[in-house]
Amino acid sequence: MINVVDKNTVNKTKPRRLFFALALPEDMQQNIVQWRADNFPPEAGRPIAAANLHLTLAFLGEVSAAKAQVLQQLAGRISQPGFNITLDDIGHWPGSGVIWLGCKNPPRGLLQLAQLLRSQAARSGCYQTPLPFHPHVTLLRGAVRPVAIPAKTANESFHASHFSLYESVFARGRTRYHLVQSWPMASSERTSDAL
């Protein structure tokens, strides 16, 4: 006898790898990819795909559907004005093999939003690293050898008008980030994409 499994039921019970993040505008993603290609040799590390460039606010890890629903409800209660972010810093963490773009002086709103989301995640049982929040966009992974870091960054800026919950899916040798839901900052309208 063959048992037919409802895929929707499986997806609702299987934990999903989730994180809160700020999406980068598409033109900014392309500018960063071009700048990265101009400043780093191919052997420096594995480049992150343009569509995957983002600024993580809180990593949640493997989350059940019930816990994800609670976290989404809590995120929907956050009232936070938008803010401007300038990516004007660059660094290399050899231990984790990450080359990143970051903020020399992160805006207060960014730090507050990350703290709120990380606190809510911790209270909901999602492990949060004890390391301080360091806002950054990962450019390359697997950069475990010394790498020449450019003296100047791309100095890309954008206005953060919403934050989002993403699911990280690894399939066919690639990681893709799927938008689960977005929440506006200030008085923008709320958007939702259930995937």
Protein architecture, described:
It is a single chain. The protein is an alpha+beta fold and 195 residues long. Helix content is 25%, strand content 35%. It has four helices and eleven strands. The strands form three sheets. A five-stranded antiparallel beta sheet has the order 3-1-9-10-11. Strand 9 (162-171) and strand 10 form a beta hairpin. The protein is globular. The protein starts with 6 loop residues before the first helix and ends with a strand. Mean pLDDT is 88; it is low at 1-11 and 188-195.
Task: Give the strand order, joined by hyphens, for the main sheet.
Answer: 3-1-9-10-11
> Low-confidence spans: pLDDT under 50, at least 5 residues?
1-11, 188-195
The largest pleated sheet is described as: 5 strands, antiparallel
Count of separate DSSP helical elements: 4
User: Into which percent range does the helicity of residues fall?
Assistant: 25-40%
| Average pLDDT taken over every residue | 88
Shape: globular
Distance between the termini: 31 Å
Give a quick set of tags describing it.
five-stranded antiparallel β-sheet, disordered C terminus, 195 residues, 25% helix, four-stranded antiparallel β-sheet, alpha+beta
